[in-house]
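cron nightly-structures :: item 1 of 1
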Amino acid sequence: MTTHESTGTAPRPGDDAPLNNRVHHIRSGELDGYAAISGGTVGSRKLWMGLVENPPSSATDNHHHGDSEAGIYVVSGHPVFVYHDGTREVRLAARPGDFFLVPPFVPHREENPDPNEPAVVVIARTTQEPIKVSVPELYRLEETDMR
């Protein structure tokens, strides 16, 4: 395998390669808010990736991500992912190195019960931009409700 080193994410002057015909390198200090890879940052068409930090003793609202799948990798902390399985509320405690898949339209929330340490996760979604639809409560959608 041949390796070529390049620096930065922006094309160099005179570089006429289309944005979708090269590898993009987003350095840790170059995130656009939470987004690292999106339509807005690098021209991604089907993928969104970002880094999210949930502060100590926090919880998101109940929400789903529309028709987007979400893959989650726990970098640090001990977040708890909460959803409803149709019978009861389910709480999945995580630790660094764990992965999760949140299917389309599944209402859930993320909690960080630790009073001292933030929970940091990397999220990948199958849409180029993040979709977040807030819902009043956790519930299990029926198959006919899923688009």
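cron nightly-structures :: done
Helices lie at 39-42.
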